[in-house]
Amino acid sequence: MTRYLRLLRIFTGATLSAQLEYRANFVGALLASLGAVGVALLGLGIVFGQPGMSSVGGWSFREALLVTGFFMLTEGVINVFIEPNMSKIADAIRTGSMDFTLLKPIDAQFGVSTRYLNVLRVPDLLIGLGLITSAASGLSVTLLGVLGAALLYASAVVIVYCIWLALSTTAFWFVKTQNVAELFNSVFGAARFPVSAFPLPVRAFLTFVVPVAFITTVPAQAMTGQLAWGVALASPVVAAALFVATRLFWLRAVGSYTSASS
Amino acid sequence: MTPSPPDAAVHVRDLRKAYAVHEKEPGFLGSVRSFVSRQTRLVEAVRGVSFDLHPGEIVGFLGPNGAGKTTTLKMLSGLLHPSGGEARVAGFEPRRREAAFLRQITLVMGQKQQLIWDLPALDSFLVNQAIYEIPDDQYRATMREYTDVLGLDGILKKQVRKLSLGERMKCELAAALLHRPRVLFLDEPTIGLDVNMQESVRAFVRDYNERHGATVILTSHYMADVTALARRILVIDQGALVFDGDLGSLAGQARAGKTIRLQLRSPVTAQALAGYGQDVSVDGLSAQLSVPRAQVSERAARLLADLDVADLTVEDPSIEAVMADLFGHRTPPAPAPTTLERA
């Protein structure tokens, strides 16, 4: 365990040094972060800006803003921790550099999942946390609610990671899978609104098929104390089940690795 | 002497690998057709290969492109799961990829790189030190040794993207051998390097082998690599092992005869030499021709008697000529010849 923490430190150091090589990138990334938050707020503004629109699917503006905050935070988690690693899996398979990962005496899934960080997108994380804090300040939030939300959000991150890994792992068979990220983003875009804002069939899809509901709506509900116990339990269970399933899928994929020629 | 499996560094029996490959007609229409319904064909890349290596042995692995060399090395290093047969390396079954196994081997691929492109090689070394849990004092000793033998001074702190191909390959080797593996799989380690660089890579491999008693399997397109390092040669063709023995007997396997070189005191024509052997070439006062191995002494005696010869030498055919001879005709692979001698 301490060994893997040490590896995380070394990986982080290496990936940070590599990015510091390219300073001009920072400005562009900051603009991208600000653009993303602008789009998210604009969406909320359009919905709530309509006359007589004080709530959507039973969510007030501040509550909906909380969901947007979790959405931005999740964008940050994806951009900083998940996407930089997952997007390299397909490349590594296509060019054959996956060979080196598989030759190392560490868990290969750990290796491909933790090797890179994109510090340039850290502002996404900060913006997300800022939105959550400012939305929550106008709502009655208990300490228990915050703890519950933190726990459920941790499960949500596991769920997001598993979906990304499962989609990226298909590259072991299909090799080129850049569209997979697009696929995730197109569905994940729905998470910027509370699930109850959608018609029932869509809501069911976002809960049971692609569990996007668990990522933003559920932590926000926990924070405002609107969450039923059953749903609170479901989130960690879904996360654990997905993690095990993804692990098995990964191991199968590695077994059928064909490696690029010489 | 075939070592029994427990003593062998590498033990391979009837190893097989079959791939399903997509086939596509050329052109756009072909692409559309293949997108709609993929034609797959099973290709047997390795078809029942068997051999054993002693600990500390250096073996040259030769064969034309696509013969199955790289596939075999990848199976032995655990990257590919064999579709049949048995492989044991340093007492482990490679496909299980146990950490204890991976710590004892390395695979160097001349055409792939593991160094972090934007950082100096030293940063990649530190990552590998952490991954392999190399103690600091051992890391320093290893770095001293490699810096010395490979001449890494002054290149370790430059970003990898700014290194020349040769410098980068030296760093790749050091990174791949940082954990002092006992079994080395070297796949074209000198590809694209100039002659000096090739020589320093060879010197490093030789030195490492002598110092640490490591077992080495080496594939290369440069015959000089193989002849300089390996006494034993494995030749693979179309997925099957067609030769296992020492360099000298490989020359004997080929139908190519020996080469007789002549220095003459008076010029002769090629026609005049035609009766003595094949592939006659004449260049002023020097000439060469090839003769069947069994008739070398008789032909040499006749040449000495008939012509005004200043000097006559008999040479084994070059390894290139032997390989061309073995693979130039593309006959279906014969059953593997019996092993003649082990280095």
Description of the structure:
The complex is a heterodimer of chains A (262) and B (343). By secondary structure, chain A is mainly α. Chain A is 74% helix and 2% strand. Chain A has 12 helices and 2 strands. Chain A has helices at residues 2-20, 24-49, 61-95, 98-103, 108-114, 122-137, 143-169, 171-174, 179-188, 200-209, 217-223, 229-255; strands at residues 55-56, 59-60. Chain B contains 12 helices and 13 strands. Chain B has 2 domains: 10-252, Rossmann fold (3-Layer(aba) Sandwich), CATH 3.40.50; 257-316, Alpha-Beta Plaits (2-Layer Sandwich). In chain B, 34% of the residues lie in helices and 27% in strands. Residues 330-343 of chain B have low confidence and may be disordered.
Q: Span from first to last CA of chain A?
A: 35 Å
How much is the radius of gyration of chain A in Å? 19 Å
Main interface: chain pair and counts: A-B, 27 and 37 residues
Question: Element order, helices and strands of chain A?
Answer: HHEEHHHHHHHHHH
Largest sheet of chain B, if any? 6 strands, mixed
Structural class of chain A: mainly alpha
Total count of helical runs of at least 4 residues of chain B: 12
Task: Jot down its keywords.
heterodimer; A: 262 residues; mainly alpha; two-stranded antiparallel ribbon; 12 helices; 2 strands; 2% strand; B: 343 residues; alpha/beta; Rossmann fold; Alpha-Beta Plaits; 2 domains; six-stranded mixed sheet; four-stranded antiparallel sheet; 34% helix; disordered C terminus
